[in-house]
Structures are given as structure tokens and as C-alpha cells.
């Protein structure tokens, strides 16, 4: 049973807010590095060197424009093709929750033993969503 709602968009909005949070945190950490005297604001003009205080946030922010782009494209394609259902909506929320958890680990402890499984969960969810879209298109 396909849905006739916009429920698929809420996980995308939630992920966008994660990106906004990360940009804010990056700005705060860079500002702190400048105020502490270790960095000059002009160093960010070409961004050849990232302060230690903001490096993990900077790296995590870049991650939000890799796998998540496939997620966003998949969500839009699923919605446009009317292939969305409760399972795709739940998968989309699992993806977003995995990104929040991945980001938290990445910008705090950065423990790969925690970070990698969280990434793989989001990866597998994205594969399942695209797989469902392919099945839907092939059988419709």
C-alpha cells in the first residue's frame, strides 16, 4: 500500500537540520580557535589548514554531502514514483537517526569501532531504498 502523504520528506528535513547544526558547530569551533589566538581568520580564506578544535566537525560536515546525497535522491525518486510506503518511511528515519549517531561519534570520541557500524547501517538502508525503487519500477 503506497502512501499519499509527504511523510517521506520529514527525514530529509531532519537531515538538513543536522547539516545546519554542524555548520553552526563548525563556526563556533573555528571562532574559538581564532579567539584563543591559534588561528587567524584569514587562514580560512583558502582553508588549507583546519584547527584541531574544528577538524572533526569539518570532516563530518563533508560526510553529509557524500552518502546522504544518494539518500536524498532516492527519497525524492521514491516519492515521485509513488513507491513510498510505511517501510520506506521507516527506512528513511533509520538512515537519519544513523547519521545523527554517526555525527555524534565522529565529532566527539571519533571511535571507528562505533562510527563504522553506524555508517554501514545508513549505507545498507540506502541500498535497500534504492533496491525497493528498482523493484517498484520493474514491476509497475
UniProtKB/TrEMBL annotation:
Compartments where found: Membrane
Keyword Chloroplast on entry: no
UniProt cross-references to InterPro entries, sorted A to Z: MAPEG-like_dom_sf, Membr-assoc_MAPEG
Entry's Gene Ontology cellular component terms: membrane
Bilayer-crossing regions: 7-26, 69-97, 118-138
Keywords from the UniProt entry: Membrane, Transmembrane, Transmembrane helix
Pfam families hit by this protein: MAPEG
Protein name listed in UniProt: MAPEG family protein
Amino acid at each position: 500500500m503506497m502512501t499519499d502523504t509527504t511523510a517521506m520528506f520529514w527525514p530529509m528535513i531532519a537531515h538538513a537540520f543536522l547539516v545546519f547544526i554542524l555548520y553552526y558547530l563548525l563556526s563556533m569551533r573555528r571562532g574559538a580557535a581564532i579567539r584563543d589566538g591559534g588561528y587567524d581568520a584569514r587562514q580560512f580564506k583558502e582553508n588549507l589548514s583546519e584547527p584541531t578544535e574544528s577538524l572533526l566537525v569539518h570532516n563530518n560536515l563533508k560526510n553529509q554531502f557524500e552518502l546522504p546525497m544518494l539518500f536524498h535522491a532516492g527519497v525524492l525518486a521514491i516519492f515521485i514514483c509513488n513507491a513510498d510506503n510505511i517501510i520506506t518511511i521507516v527506512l528513511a528515519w533509520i538512515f537519519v537517526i544513523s547519521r545523527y549517531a554517526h555525527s555524534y561519534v565522529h565529532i566527539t570520541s571519533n571511535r571507528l569501532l562505533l562510527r563504522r557500524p553506524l555508517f554501514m547501517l545508513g549505507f545498507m538502508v540506502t541500498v535497500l531504498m534504492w533496491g525497493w525503487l528498482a523493484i517498484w519500477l520493474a514491476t509497475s
